[in-house]
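Before any further analysis, backbone shapes were mapped to integers, which produced the following:

***
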Amino acid sequence: MATELNTKRFILRRITQDDYDFLYEMYSDPSVMEYITCGTCSPEATQKFLQEFIDHWDKHGFGMFVGISKKTGEKLGYIGFRVLPKLGGIELAGFVKKKFWGQRLPDETGKALLEHGFKDLGFDLIYSVAHPDNAPSLKCIENLGMRADTTKDGDYHGGFTAYFEITKDEFNKL
């Protein structure tokens, strides 16, 4: 189980309890949470989500990574995998701090994670979900080569959701 990955610009390392302040900074920002059904998070809710990320790693051997700039050492966002029982599969998900929006961070880290998921973890299919009005997230998902899956129910996390997927074979052809 890899707990650290590297891309050209980023170190991706397993999320830990030490990431609470960073996570709370993102989860309490209304612009970052605009398209998330639950809205901004309290300190307690942030701790609950962080503990779920940590527990997911312990249970499944994979999960969320914090993205850290190799140049500055700053935490930029998080990205990783989680099991989605409703879909019966694996989701690639993440958040980026507002000050780093528009720098194509999810493109680089997302491609590294998809490669890790298919090559190292043995996944055959990976999903992503996004609010259909969240144009930047939809663009990131599209840039990863994922295609819309219109056969899925549009309700996830209590709000309307657009579903996307990519198979191992599709990724290998990119």
